Amino acid sequence: MLVVDCDPQANATAGLGVDPSASGKNMYQVFMSGIDDFPKVMMQDIIIKTASGIDLAPAHLDLVGAEPYLYHAKFPTGVLKEALANVKNQYSYVFIDTPPSLGQFVINGLFAADHVIVTLDSGSFALNGVTTLSTIFSDIKEGLGKEIRPDMAIVSRWGEGLIQLCSQPEAKEGKGLFSRIRNIFYKPPELSPEDLKAAEEQKQEHTRLLAMLNQIKRRFPSVYTVPYSTAVYEAQKRGMPISHVAPDSSAGIAYKTIAEEVMRWN
Q: In DSSP terms, which residues pair with 56 in a beta bridge?
């Protein structure tokens, strides 16, 4: 498997344990190849193997400087697709990570991809991102003649905004004899105004999340949610995929299910 990091923030690169500020050939040189007499650098010249066993075409912080030059390329939207032509048959899967904002890197990634996965978080502005992407897809179809049909949406950090109240033990127990006897002698304390407010906020947040998810499901053929989990951040710190760090965590199980669907794609 090959991961191609086209995001100047280089999160995919760092997430696979590679320092984005390290010297060496990277996607900056690939995108700049042939522009303004820059030397030709092939994709196979920059690929490195990470500790996880995944091959990586790393990003670099300098990548942000390449985007303005792409507008002057002979075929600006096809730079990445052409660069991948010599290596894509060596891999069963090639994953392209693009920035969250519109630009040549996103368009290059969409133009080179056979399938499109849209990642969102559970924040209030997630649907705005979906609307923006729909505009991008329409522009690519109108300007380049390629129709983009996203295959999947992944809503990450699902439930992060929910307020978790510390329930009293009685709220979790059944209606057994022991529970009824104890309730005769012990009356649970009434919730404070702060607790009641928190409970109402939790209810409203739950309603918002369900409404958002329903709207997303109407726009994508396949939608997955990945629960908020500290295991994700632990994996990022270690520079390893969550499948290597915490496969049995809630997020690890969710990503395993997602991977199984992706592997069924033609």
A: 3, 48
How far, rounded to the nearest angstrom, does the alpha carbon of residue 229 sit from its chain's CA centroid? 14
Q: 151-165, pLDDT tens digit by residue?
A: 999 998 887 544 333
* φ, ψ at 98 (rounded to 5°): -120, 165
Paired tokens of 14? 């760092």
Closest of 93, 83, 87, 81 to residue 146, by C-alpha: 81
DSSP code of residue 51: T
Tell me the residue type at 189.
P
Q: What is the mean pLDDT of residues 184-205?
A: 71
Q: pTM to 2 decimals?
A: 0.81
pLDDT tens per residue across span 70-114: 888 888 889 999 999 999 999 999 999 999 877 899 999 999 999
What is the DSSP-derived secondary structure letter of residue 100? S
Q: Sketch out the chain's domains with CATH numbers.
A: 2-164+222-262 (3.40.50.300)
Write out the two tokens for 197: 């407010």
